[in-house]
């Protein structure tokens, strides 16, 4: 592996370019019409225009990406998150073109990217799953399955992601109505109408475990993250480690994630997501077969360079450390700064970023793909930056978070900064007493 094509944009493209250069690799950036003058284009060794601004014409156009790799002599592709990162078809196209895909095998993406198939794998690995069903084909099957599962249930698209493709259902009548709509939506959004049912678990925390597997069969974890602060099933604040977790719970949830990764012969970086109930029971919900947005908080508390490890593993090298080498040191919190207006139902707020003054200092890391003067277009995700604040303990990490928010100046577009300023002082968050519905209950007008 010598030259990596970065098949993504924004902060994760910058993150990958940095890791690749630090590993002595060359990089190729790609950009759409909208992103010609972007930061990642300037940082990469070379850059290739791949199409129009709409994602379907550029960052989702696998043929254009293969061609960009061929014309620049890239021998590997890093997909980042979102876009093509969890599409087995794209991974196969890259492999067929002789490119190393920085991620798991096509068949692993196929299995673990399908939430219903992933539940079966978890069962085989003796990892507890949320009570639910297999795929349900029609209303009669769904109604019969729901009798066993128990209302309220969630109708989930097997191919869903990014908080989309999940619908809560309270009763038989509602299920009969929602099922066909959910199938139609899944077909158009994910080109796959497979749906299944899960019991809706109230008051739970979202706990996820970062794992790394290599070609030699080593599987290690770098502990867990708590991503319970969500709106519409999308994460806004994440923490590592999960606050207040009993030592036995931490050990068993981390072990369960490793067991599942071993079961499927996982190679690469991945995240195993769970719901943790107040009584300490946990249930697998899904696996993300890619690097995640919130990976830096794990890096902050373990010192592991997760993107660097992804590149090593893809090049055929073993993970650079063993399980016994990894310890949690201190605590870290990530705040997602999105171009969204928290006072207006979090509506996206594209516009010109007239000012972007970033905070700094010990324990403050800012990952962003933008500079002042850039335009935040309507075409892609609304995330502008991530603030990753860490310290010797949780209070110190939060204090640095408050200071970082005080220094941060974003002008030109409304952002989630004002919400974060408020949330860091919320008593429930300070004590770690949050669950996945906490934010929506706190901001009832936001949904
Ligand atoms: P993470 O689990 O890393 O926090 P998110 O769920 O926030 O990931 O998703 C990461 C990015 O990928 C977001 O930009 C999200 O919109 C996008 N994404 C994830 N899965 C899908 C999917 N199936 N379809 C479309 N976009 C997706
Ligand atoms: P996605 O692929 O969109 O990330 P997930 O299955 O990971 O979908 O679920 C996203 C979020 O939805 C979870 O973090 C949690 O807040 C909520 N959720 C998912 N499954 C359940 C469930 N069975 N009960 C309650 N909430 C759930
Ligand atoms: Mg998820």
Overview of the structural elements:
By secondary structure, this protein is of the alpha+beta class. It has 3 domains: 3-102, Rossmann fold; 131-199, ATP-grasp fold, A domain (Dna Ligase, domain 1, 2-Layer Sandwich); 205-442, D-amino Acid Aminotransferase, Chain A, domain 1 (2-Layer Sandwich), CATH 3.30.470.20. The chain is built from 15 helices and 23 strands. The chain has helices at residues 10-22, 39-43, 62-72, 88-96, 106-113, 115-124, 139-149, 172-190, 247-263, 295-302, 306-314, 394-407, 417-423, 427-431, 438-442; strands at 3-6, 26-32, 46-51, 76-78, 100-101, 132-135, 153-161, 164-169, 195-199, 205-213, 219-231, 234-240, 268-276, 282-288, 331-338, 340-341, 347-348, 351-352, 355-357, 364-368, 375-376, 383-391, 409-411. The strands form 6 sheets. The protein has an 8-stranded antiparallel sheet, sandwiched between helices. A 5-stranded parallel sheet has the order 3-2-1-4-5. The radius of gyration is 21 Å and the shape is globular. It starts with a strand and ends in a 5-residue tail after the last helix. The mean pLDDT is 97. One adenosine-5'-diphosphate is lined by residues 130, 154, 160-163, 166, 198-201, 206, 230, 233, 273, 275, 285-286, 436. One adenosine-5'-diphosphate (ADP) is lined by residues 130, 154, 160-163, 166, 198-201, 206, 230, 233, 273, 275, 285-286, 436.
